[in-house]
Amino acid sequence: MVAVEPNPTAETIYLGCYTADGGGNGSGVMAARRDPVSGRIEEPVLVAETPSPSFLTRHPRRPVLYAVNEVDEGTVSAWKVGGDGGLRPLGEQSTGGSSPCHLAFVATGDHLVSVNYVSGSVAVHPVTDKGELLPRTDLRTHTGAGPRSDRQEGPHAHMVSPDPEGDGLYAIDLGTDAVYRYLLDQATGVLSEPDPAVAATPGSGPRHFARHPAGGYGYLVGELDASVTAYAIDGTGRIRERGRASASAATGAQPSEIAVGPGGRFLYVANRGPDTIAIFSLSVPDQPLYVTEVASGGHWPRHFAIVGGHLYVANERSESVGVHVIDPVTGGPSMLGDPVPVPTPTCVLPVSW
Protein backbone atom coordinates (compact mmCIF):
# COMPACT_ATOMS: atom_id res chain seq x y z
CA MET A 1 0.00 0.00 0.00
CA VAL A 2 1.27 3.46 -0.90
CA ALA A 3 1.89 5.95 1.92
CA VAL A 4 1.66 9.71 1.64
CA GLU A 5 5.06 11.30 1.16
CA PRO A 6 6.12 13.67 3.96
CA ASN A 7 5.56 17.33 3.22
CA PRO A 8 6.03 19.69 6.18
CA THR A 9 4.57 22.65 4.31
CA ALA A 10 1.18 20.99 3.80
CA GLU A 11 -1.64 19.43 5.75
CA THR A 12 -3.43 16.16 5.08
CA ILE A 13 -6.93 15.65 3.76
CA TYR A 14 -8.44 12.21 4.30
CA LEU A 15 -11.25 11.06 2.04
CA GLY A 16 -13.92 8.47 2.75
CA CYS A 17 -15.20 6.62 -0.31
CA TYR A 18 -17.92 4.12 -1.13
CA THR A 19 -16.45 0.79 -2.13
CA ALA A 20 -18.18 -2.00 -4.08
CA ASP A 21 -20.09 -2.93 -0.91
CA GLY A 22 -21.89 0.42 -1.19
CA GLY A 23 -22.15 0.58 -4.95
CA GLY A 24 -19.00 2.69 -5.32
CA ASN A 25 -15.64 2.46 -7.02
CA GLY A 26 -13.37 3.24 -4.07
CA SER A 27 -11.13 0.86 -2.14
CA GLY A 28 -11.14 2.52 1.27
CA VAL A 29 -9.67 5.63 2.89
CA MET A 30 -7.57 7.92 0.69
CA ALA A 31 -5.29 10.79 1.63
CA ALA A 32 -3.93 13.84 -0.13
CA ARG A 33 -1.49 16.55 0.85
CA ARG A 34 -2.87 20.08 0.95
CA ASP A 35 -0.88 23.27 0.49
CA PRO A 36 -2.27 25.53 3.26
CA VAL A 37 -1.41 28.69 1.31
CA SER A 38 -2.80 27.93 -2.13
CA GLY A 39 -5.37 25.39 -0.96
CA ARG A 40 -4.47 22.99 -3.75
CA ILE A 41 -4.32 19.26 -3.02
CA GLU A 42 -2.11 16.63 -4.55
CA GLU A 43 -3.39 13.47 -6.18
CA PRO A 44 -4.92 11.30 -3.42
CA VAL A 45 -3.50 7.86 -2.65
CA LEU A 46 -5.02 4.87 -0.90
CA VAL A 47 -3.91 4.58 2.73
CA ALA A 48 -6.34 1.98 4.14
CA GLU A 49 -8.36 -0.71 2.45
CA THR A 50 -11.69 -1.02 4.25
CA PRO A 51 -15.33 -1.46 3.13
CA SER A 52 -17.28 1.75 2.45
CA PRO A 53 -15.73 4.17 4.98
CA SER A 54 -18.47 6.68 4.24
CA PHE A 55 -17.75 9.06 7.14
CA LEU A 56 -14.52 9.86 8.98
CA THR A 57 -13.50 11.56 12.17
CA ARG A 58 -10.32 11.98 14.20
CA HIS A 59 -9.57 11.63 17.87
CA PRO A 60 -9.60 15.09 19.49
CA ARG A 61 -6.18 14.57 21.13
CA ARG A 62 -4.41 11.57 19.60
CA PRO A 63 -3.19 10.83 16.05
CA VAL A 64 -5.90 8.25 15.40
CA LEU A 65 -8.42 8.20 12.54
CA TYR A 66 -11.84 6.51 12.65
CA ALA A 67 -14.45 5.55 10.06
CA VAL A 68 -17.89 4.02 9.91
CA ASN A 69 -18.08 1.07 7.55
CA GLU A 70 -21.47 1.56 5.89
CA VAL A 71 -22.35 -2.07 5.23
CA ASP A 72 -25.21 -4.39 6.25
CA GLU A 73 -23.45 -5.52 9.43
CA GLY A 74 -22.03 -2.16 10.38
CA THR A 75 -18.67 -1.57 12.00
CA VAL A 76 -16.43 1.28 13.13
CA SER A 77 -12.70 1.08 12.35
CA ALA A 78 -9.63 2.80 13.81
CA TRP A 79 -6.11 3.50 12.51
CA LYS A 80 -2.99 4.98 14.07
CA VAL A 81 -1.69 7.81 11.87
CA GLY A 82 2.00 7.66 11.03
CA GLY A 83 4.34 10.58 10.51
CA ASP A 84 3.96 10.20 6.75
CA GLY A 85 0.15 10.25 6.95
CA GLY A 86 -0.10 6.49 6.44
CA LEU A 87 -2.52 4.43 8.54
CA ARG A 88 -1.84 1.41 10.76
CA PRO A 89 -4.94 -0.63 11.71
CA LEU A 90 -6.03 -0.55 15.36
CA GLY A 91 -9.03 -2.83 14.90
CA GLU A 92 -12.76 -2.53 14.45
CA GLN A 93 -15.95 -3.06 16.43
CA SER A 94 -19.57 -3.80 15.54
CA THR A 95 -22.06 -0.94 15.68
CA GLY A 96 -24.89 -3.38 16.37
CA GLY A 97 -26.83 -2.21 13.35
CA SER A 98 -26.99 -1.76 9.61
CA SER A 99 -25.38 0.93 7.45
CA PRO A 100 -23.74 3.28 9.96
CA CYS A 101 -23.32 6.67 8.28
CA HIS A 102 -21.88 9.09 10.86
CA LEU A 103 -19.69 9.13 13.97
CA ALA A 104 -18.27 11.69 16.40
CA PHE A 105 -16.45 11.90 19.72
CA VAL A 106 -17.96 13.24 22.91
CA ALA A 107 -16.06 16.17 24.39
CA THR A 108 -13.73 14.13 26.61
CA GLY A 109 -12.55 11.94 23.73
CA ASP A 110 -13.22 8.81 25.79
CA HIS A 111 -16.26 7.60 23.83
CA LEU A 112 -17.06 7.37 20.13
CA VAL A 113 -20.73 7.58 19.15
CA SER A 114 -22.06 6.37 15.80
CA VAL A 115 -25.47 6.10 14.16
CA ASN A 116 -26.91 3.24 12.10
CA TYR A 117 -29.02 4.60 9.25
CA VAL A 118 -31.02 1.52 8.26
CA SER A 119 -31.52 0.36 11.84
CA GLY A 120 -32.25 3.82 13.22
CA SER A 121 -29.99 3.36 16.22
CA VAL A 122 -27.23 5.06 18.22
CA ALA A 123 -24.13 3.10 19.35
CA VAL A 124 -21.46 3.97 21.94
CA HIS A 125 -17.89 2.64 22.00
CA PRO A 126 -15.30 3.43 24.69
CA VAL A 127 -11.79 4.24 23.46
CA THR A 128 -8.54 3.28 25.20
CA ASP A 129 -5.69 5.66 25.98
CA LYS A 130 -4.06 4.49 22.74
CA GLY A 131 -7.18 5.22 20.72
CA GLU A 132 -8.25 1.60 20.33
CA LEU A 133 -11.97 0.84 20.15
CA LEU A 134 -13.53 -1.29 22.89
CA PRO A 135 -16.75 -3.29 22.57
CA ARG A 136 -20.01 -1.37 22.47
CA THR A 137 -21.42 -0.23 25.82
CA ASP A 138 -24.82 0.93 24.60
CA LEU A 139 -27.21 0.78 21.66
CA ARG A 140 -30.40 2.84 21.53
CA THR A 141 -32.94 2.24 18.77
CA HIS A 142 -35.44 4.91 17.80
CA THR A 143 -39.08 4.15 17.00
CA GLY A 144 -41.66 5.78 14.77
CA ALA A 145 -42.01 6.89 11.17
CA GLY A 146 -42.66 9.96 9.04
CA PRO A 147 -45.20 10.92 6.37
CA ARG A 148 -42.90 10.05 3.46
CA SER A 149 -43.53 6.31 3.08
CA ASP A 150 -40.74 5.96 0.52
CA ARG A 151 -38.05 7.31 2.86
CA GLN A 152 -39.61 7.43 6.33
CA GLU A 153 -41.11 3.98 6.85
CA GLY A 154 -39.12 3.75 10.08
CA PRO A 155 -36.32 5.46 12.01
CA HIS A 156 -33.17 6.39 10.10
CA ALA A 157 -30.56 7.95 12.38
CA HIS A 158 -28.29 10.09 10.21
CA MET A 159 -25.98 12.11 12.45
CA VAL A 160 -24.71 12.52 15.99
CA SER A 161 -23.74 15.99 17.23
CA PRO A 162 -22.05 15.99 20.66
CA ASP A 163 -21.95 19.14 22.79
CA PRO A 164 -18.61 20.99 22.52
CA GLU A 165 -18.38 20.60 26.31
CA GLY A 166 -20.15 18.27 28.71
CA ASP A 167 -21.92 14.94 28.24
CA GLY A 168 -24.83 15.84 25.96
CA LEU A 169 -25.42 14.96 22.33
CA TYR A 170 -28.08 15.22 19.64
CA ALA A 171 -29.04 12.28 17.42
CA ILE A 172 -30.61 13.48 14.17
CA ASP A 173 -33.20 11.06 12.71
CA LEU A 174 -34.31 11.47 9.10
CA GLY A 175 -36.98 8.78 9.33
CA THR A 176 -38.87 10.14 12.33
CA ASP A 177 -38.41 13.87 11.67
CA ALA A 178 -36.86 14.27 15.10
CA VAL A 179 -33.85 15.42 17.09
CA TYR A 180 -33.17 13.30 20.19
CA ARG A 181 -31.23 14.67 23.16
CA TYR A 182 -29.11 12.17 25.13
CA LEU A 183 -26.71 12.43 28.05
CA LEU A 184 -23.78 10.01 28.24
CA ASP A 185 -22.64 8.54 31.55
CA GLN A 186 -18.86 8.74 31.17
CA ALA A 187 -18.27 6.06 33.80
CA THR A 188 -20.46 3.39 32.19
CA GLY A 189 -20.68 4.48 28.55
CA VAL A 190 -24.48 4.27 28.78
CA LEU A 191 -26.85 6.85 27.30
CA SER A 192 -29.71 8.31 29.30
CA GLU A 193 -33.28 7.92 28.20
CA PRO A 194 -33.65 10.71 25.64
CA ASP A 195 -35.52 13.90 26.37
CA PRO A 196 -38.83 14.15 24.52
CA ALA A 197 -37.77 14.39 20.88
CA VAL A 198 -37.83 17.79 19.23
CA ALA A 199 -40.14 17.42 16.26
CA ALA A 200 -38.87 18.82 13.00
CA THR A 201 -41.27 19.82 10.23
CA PRO A 202 -43.18 16.67 9.15
CA GLY A 203 -41.65 15.19 6.03
CA SER A 204 -38.54 17.36 6.24
CA GLY A 205 -36.17 14.42 6.77
CA PRO A 206 -33.57 16.09 9.03
CA ARG A 207 -30.09 14.97 8.00
CA HIS A 208 -27.24 17.02 9.52
CA PHE A 209 -26.90 19.67 12.23
CA ALA A 210 -24.32 22.48 12.44
CA ARG A 211 -23.54 24.50 15.55
CA HIS A 212 -22.61 28.16 15.60
CA PRO A 213 -19.03 28.55 16.94
CA ALA A 214 -20.15 31.26 19.38
CA GLY A 215 -22.69 28.87 20.90
CA GLY A 216 -26.38 29.44 21.41
CA TYR A 217 -27.55 28.49 17.91
CA GLY A 218 -27.66 25.48 15.60
CA TYR A 219 -28.87 24.79 12.07
CA LEU A 220 -30.68 21.69 10.81
CA VAL A 221 -30.81 20.77 7.14
CA GLY A 222 -33.84 18.85 5.84
CA GLU A 223 -32.95 16.42 3.08
CA LEU A 224 -36.52 15.68 1.99
CA ASP A 225 -38.00 19.20 1.87
CA ALA A 226 -34.79 21.12 1.09
CA SER A 227 -35.00 23.28 4.19
CA VAL A 228 -32.69 24.99 6.68
CA THR A 229 -34.07 25.51 10.19
CA ALA A 230 -32.37 27.65 12.83
CA TYR A 231 -32.64 26.72 16.52
CA ALA A 232 -31.75 28.51 19.72
CA ILE A 233 -29.81 26.28 22.15
CA ASP A 234 -30.34 27.00 25.85
CA GLY A 235 -27.94 26.32 28.72
CA THR A 236 -29.26 22.78 29.17
CA GLY A 237 -28.78 21.87 25.52
CA ARG A 238 -32.46 21.96 24.67
CA ILE A 239 -33.33 23.51 21.31
CA ARG A 240 -36.17 25.74 20.14
CA GLU A 241 -37.02 26.58 16.52
CA ARG A 242 -36.39 30.19 15.55
CA GLY A 243 -36.23 30.59 11.77
CA ARG A 244 -36.58 28.63 8.54
CA ALA A 245 -35.43 29.03 4.94
CA SER A 246 -35.17 27.10 1.68
CA ALA A 247 -31.84 25.34 1.19
CA SER A 248 -31.70 26.21 -2.51
CA ALA A 249 -33.32 28.49 -5.05
CA ALA A 250 -33.50 25.52 -7.42
CA THR A 251 -36.24 22.90 -7.43
CA GLY A 252 -35.55 19.26 -6.65
CA ALA A 253 -32.65 19.88 -4.28
CA GLN A 254 -31.64 17.17 -1.82
CA PRO A 255 -29.38 18.87 0.72
CA SER A 256 -26.61 16.87 2.35
CA GLU A 257 -23.98 18.66 4.45
CA ILE A 258 -24.36 21.91 6.41
CA ALA A 259 -21.61 23.89 8.16
CA VAL A 260 -20.92 27.31 9.63
CA GLY A 261 -17.89 29.09 8.18
CA PRO A 262 -14.99 30.56 10.13
CA GLY A 263 -16.05 33.44 12.34
CA GLY A 264 -19.71 32.42 12.23
CA ARG A 265 -20.65 34.95 9.53
CA PHE A 266 -21.91 32.54 6.88
CA LEU A 267 -23.71 29.21 6.68
CA TYR A 268 -23.02 26.75 3.85
CA VAL A 269 -25.29 23.99 2.49
CA ALA A 270 -24.50 21.37 -0.17
CA ASN A 271 -27.41 20.69 -2.53
CA ARG A 272 -27.48 17.49 -4.54
CA GLY A 273 -29.55 17.73 -7.72
CA PRO A 274 -28.73 21.32 -8.68
CA ASP A 275 -25.18 20.46 -7.53
CA THR A 276 -24.53 23.68 -5.69
CA ILE A 277 -23.20 25.13 -2.46
CA ALA A 278 -25.66 27.65 -1.04
CA ILE A 279 -24.46 30.51 1.15
CA PHE A 280 -26.54 32.13 3.90
CA SER A 281 -25.71 35.23 5.91
CA LEU A 282 -25.82 34.81 9.70
CA SER A 283 -25.75 38.51 10.50
CA VAL A 284 -28.88 37.65 12.50
CA PRO A 285 -27.86 34.21 13.83
CA ASP A 286 -31.35 32.78 14.25
CA GLN A 287 -32.58 33.96 10.82
CA PRO A 288 -30.37 32.53 8.03
CA LEU A 289 -30.61 34.81 4.99
CA TYR A 290 -30.04 33.24 1.57
CA VAL A 291 -27.28 35.08 -0.32
CA THR A 292 -26.46 32.97 -3.38
CA GLU A 293 -25.32 29.53 -4.48
CA VAL A 294 -22.46 28.42 -6.67
CA ALA A 295 -21.61 25.26 -8.59
CA SER A 296 -20.05 22.54 -6.43
CA GLY A 297 -17.58 21.64 -9.18
CA GLY A 298 -19.11 18.23 -9.84
CA HIS A 299 -22.19 16.03 -9.53
CA TRP A 300 -23.97 15.08 -6.30
CA PRO A 301 -22.11 17.02 -3.58
CA ARG A 302 -22.48 14.64 -0.64
CA HIS A 303 -20.16 16.33 1.85
CA PHE A 304 -17.77 19.25 2.20
CA ALA A 305 -15.27 20.64 4.67
CA ILE A 306 -13.97 24.14 5.31
CA VAL A 307 -10.37 24.69 6.37
CA GLY A 308 -8.79 28.11 6.46
CA GLY A 309 -10.04 30.06 3.48
CA HIS A 310 -10.79 27.00 1.38
CA LEU A 311 -13.76 24.68 0.87
CA TYR A 312 -13.45 21.08 -0.35
CA VAL A 313 -16.47 19.30 -1.82
CA ALA A 314 -16.87 15.54 -2.21
CA ASN A 315 -18.84 15.23 -5.45
CA GLU A 316 -19.90 11.61 -5.18
CA ARG A 317 -21.31 10.83 -8.63
CA SER A 318 -18.74 12.73 -10.68
CA GLU A 319 -16.03 11.03 -8.57
CA SER A 320 -14.11 14.15 -7.77
CA VAL A 321 -13.29 16.71 -5.09
CA GLY A 322 -13.88 20.34 -5.95
CA VAL A 323 -11.45 22.83 -4.39
CA HIS A 324 -12.82 26.33 -3.76
CA VAL A 325 -11.43 29.60 -2.44
CA ILE A 326 -13.77 31.45 -0.06
CA ASP A 327 -14.02 35.21 -0.51
CA PRO A 328 -13.32 36.64 2.96
CA VAL A 329 -15.81 39.51 2.44
CA THR A 330 -18.77 37.91 0.65
CA GLY A 331 -18.25 34.37 1.92
CA GLY A 332 -18.73 33.09 -1.63
CA PRO A 333 -16.64 30.10 -2.85
CA SER A 334 -15.03 30.03 -6.29
CA MET A 335 -13.40 27.04 -7.98
CA LEU A 336 -9.63 26.70 -7.83
CA GLY A 337 -8.55 24.82 -10.95
CA ASP A 338 -10.06 21.54 -12.08
CA PRO A 339 -11.71 19.05 -9.71
CA VAL A 340 -9.39 16.37 -8.32
CA PRO A 341 -10.33 12.79 -9.34
CA VAL A 342 -11.38 10.61 -6.38
CA PRO A 343 -13.36 7.35 -6.66
CA THR A 344 -16.89 7.83 -5.24
CA PRO A 345 -15.96 10.27 -2.45
CA THR A 346 -18.40 10.61 0.46
CA CYS A 347 -16.49 12.51 3.16
CA VAL A 348 -13.71 15.10 3.37
CA LEU A 349 -11.68 15.37 6.60
CA PRO A 350 -8.84 17.95 6.71
CA VAL A 351 -6.48 17.42 9.66
CA SER A 352 -3.31 18.82 11.17
CA TRP A 353 -1.61 16.54 13.69
For this entry, give a set of tags.
five-stranded antiparallel β-sheet; disordered N terminus; globular; 0% helix; single chain; 353 residues
Describe the structure.
The chain is mainly β and 353 residues long. It is built from no helices and 30 strands. Strands 12, 13, 14, 15 and 16 form a five-stranded antiparallel sheet that branches. Strands 25, 26, 27, 28 and 29 form a five-stranded antiparallel sheet that branches. The N terminus is likely disordered.
Low-confidence stretches: 1-9
Determine the strand fraction and express it as a percent band. Answer: over 45%
Computed Rg: 19 Å
- Terminal CA distance reads 22 Å
Brief overview, please?
The chain is an all-beta fold.
Write the layout of secondary structure elements.
Blueprint: E1 11-17, E2 28-34, E3 45-49, E4 53-58, E5 64-69, E6 75-81, E7 87-94, E8 100-105, E9 111-116, E10 121-126, E11 138-141, E12 157-162, E13 168-173, E14 178-185, E15 190-191, E16 198-199, E17 206-211, E18 217-222, E19 227-233, E20 239-246, E21 254-260, E22 266-272, E23 276-281, E24 289-295, E25 301-307, E26 310-315, E27 320-326, E28 333-335, E29 340-341, E30 345-351
Antiparallel strand pairs: 1-2, 1-30, 2-3, 4-5, 5-6, 6-7, 8-9, 9-10, 10-11, 12-13, 13-14, 14-15, 14-16, 17-18, 18-19, 19-20, 21-22, 22-23, 23-24, 25-26, 26-27, 27-28, 27-29
